[in-house]
Design a protein that fits this description.
- This protein is an alpha+beta fold.
- Helix content is about 40%, strand content about 10%.
- It has one domain: Rossmann fold.
- A two-stranded parallel ribbon has the order 1-2.
- Helix 1 packs parallel to helix 3 and helix 2 runs parallel beside helix 3.
- It is globular.
- The two termini are about 10 Å apart.
- The mean pLDDT is about 85.
């Protein structure tokens, strides 16, 4: 099977493993709803958050929704939205690896992305 190649791919493939495990900190002021339902909303760097979830939630998550940069060149305060495709792929690859490890066998991922970047994400 062909493999997609891009500048920085080798580092991107190893990035998920190199990310350190961090502890999630509960912040009561940001919490809402019934904690017994097990739903989480995590604020912070998504690579760190995904890695922090692995020890408890690996293979147990039913649904993940992500909103990566659309790469449209629009101005966003939260993140750079005008990346070269190789940089964008290197950003997304380790996150998708960790998401895959978190999902149950029947789990789903919902990605909010525009059509041009959707093709790169699928690849």
């Amino acid at each position: 099977m062909p493999t997609l190649q891009w500048l920085g791919r080798d580092e991107a493939v190893l990035a998920a493993d190199k990310a350190p495990f961090r502890l999630l900190e509960h912040v009561a002021d940001l919490s809402a709803g019934d904690a017994d339902f097990g739903n989480l909303l995590i604020q912070g760097d998504n690579l760190d958050a995904l890695k922090a979830l692995l020890p408890v939630y690996a293979g147990r998550v039913k649904c993940i929704a992500i909103d990566p940069p659309y790469n449209t060149g629009s101005a966003f305060q939260q993140y750079e939205d005008n990346l070269e495709h190789s940089t964008w792929l290197s950003l997304m690859y380790p996150r998708m690896q960790l998401i895959r490890d978190l999902l149950r066998e029947d789990g789903t991922i919902w990605v909010f992305i525009d059509d041009p970047e959707g093709d790169y994400l699928k690849a």
